Fold this sequence. Notes:
The complex is a heterotetramer, with two copies of chain A and two copies of chain C. Chain A has three helices and nine strands; from the N terminus they run βαβββαβββαββ. Chain A has helices at residues 13-20, 53-69, 103-120; strands at residues 3-7, 27-34, 38-39, 42-51, 77-83, 85-88, 92-100, 123-129, 134-137. In chain A, the strands form two sheets. In chain A, strands 3, 4, 6, 8 and 9 form a five-stranded antiparallel sheet that branches. In chain A, strands 1-5-7-2 form a four-stranded mixed sheet, with helices on both faces. Chain A is elongated. The N and C termini of chain A lie far apart (35 Å). In chain C, 20% of the residues lie in helices and 26% in strands. Chain C is built from two helices and five strands. Chain C has helices at residues 9-15, 30-38; strands at 2-6, 19-23, 51-54, 57-58, 70-74. The longest helix of chain C is centred in the middle third of the chain and has 9 residues, at 30-38. The mean pLDDT of chain C is 97. The A-B interface holds A 13-14, 17, 21-38, 89-90, 99, 101-104, 106-107, 110-111, 114, 143-144 and B 13-14, 17, 21-38, 89-90, 99, 101-104, 106-107, 110-111, 114, 143-144. Strand 2 of chain A pairs antiparallel with strand 2 (27-34) of chain B.
Amino acid sequence: MNHVALVTEAIDVAALLARVSSPTVGAIASFLGTVRNVNDNRAVTGIEYSAYEEMAEREMRAIVAEAAAQVDGVPPRIAIEHRLGELSLGDVSVAIAVSHARRAPALDACRYVIEELKKRVPIWKREHYADGSRAWVDNRNTVGAVELPGVIG
Amino acid sequence: MNHVALVTEAIDVAALLARVSSPTVGAIASFLGTVRNVNDNRAVTGIEYSAYEEMAEREMRAIVAEAAAQVDGVPPRIAIEHRLGELSLGDVSVAIAVSHARRAPALDACRYVIEELKKRVPIWKREHYADGSRAWVDNRNTVGAVELPGVIG
Amino acid sequence: MRVGLRLFASYADALGTRSLDVTLADGATVRDALAYVRALPGASALPPAPLMAVNAEYAPLDQPLSHGDEVALIPPVAGG
Amino acid sequence: MRVGLRLFASYADALGTRSLDVTLADGATVRDALAYVRALPGASALPPAPLMAVNAEYAPLDQPLSHGDEVALIPPVAGG
Lengths: 153, 153, 80, 80
């Protein structure tokens, strides 16, 4: 019922929402990450996403299971897609949809998924800038940086 | 740029998301309320929504302004549509979309809007049940009830 | 002065009307408009202290009214 | 034993390779696999303590390896 995927074509947000829709749910929370035209005051023209695919899917499934375990009673339905490859400005890089009978569990689980995804899922991005240069950027050195997991071992 | 509307046809969620999309945003948070097939253990077959329309639009605009004022710097873009009339199971009753450069302000503002909408916006619903009966239901006596504003005066 | 009264949802059902124009004494407040409604048939179904609005904005009971104001009784809301 | 090493993103760029098969002594741990990588040309660009994974799961440095394991160095992530 839950859904996790890495995709190379444009994410179909309506289809993702439909995956978690049902007459048994009363609330659908969603989050979309999109490619911005600026980062750290540099003009961005595009982003290239890559992943350790097996591990990224495994971590996303683990995050979905954790989010579900935090809800008492019927678990939320959760769908996640992350796009890989070359993305243009405004493209959706990640889409998360979470449904539940009640809104609080849906909103909480949606937020949990995006926060954990940004910390743990092995996906990387290289920004392309207006001056022709490129740079690897991570979630520590962008605005709204996340706390990375501590070094293990 | 922000958008508030009461509508009588199906809400076009993709169009609402597009209203807040832009190459300047990196995050779009959204919330959909949908018609559930059960409430307080009664089988629901549909819901009829009505509103004090001028006041509902005014309150929604006030909520949008409050949500925007809580964000430092560039305010979020916010779009809200609430449907009125006869809705069937699974139909979207309310859709909220919020975009921002960063995810935390988008997620926070989206949640603020739905919580305040449920407390303050003068919209009412009458549930239709499988046994043919109907009843007015409010946000105090449903699961996940909200705290209503104190009696004024 | 003349003011418009508006009723909605369960309140409109209880009183059998959705709007009425009434004459109140000069200097009347929201409380006086509510008292007028309370004297109507069916008003016993109203709660002790319904929320009130004037010209589409929540208003306290002691707010003074003006000629032409629209006064509404606001049932517990159910949007979302 | 033989293990596969995988490198990604900035680490792959720094070392000029994305995967290599290496032979480690029996009883080797994740730390030994990392030490192997540190001896390669370009490894000075690696941080002092990169995150490591074994068979697509985060793993501590003292985790023992088995023949056929896939060991990965995980650069700071950037999904979302």
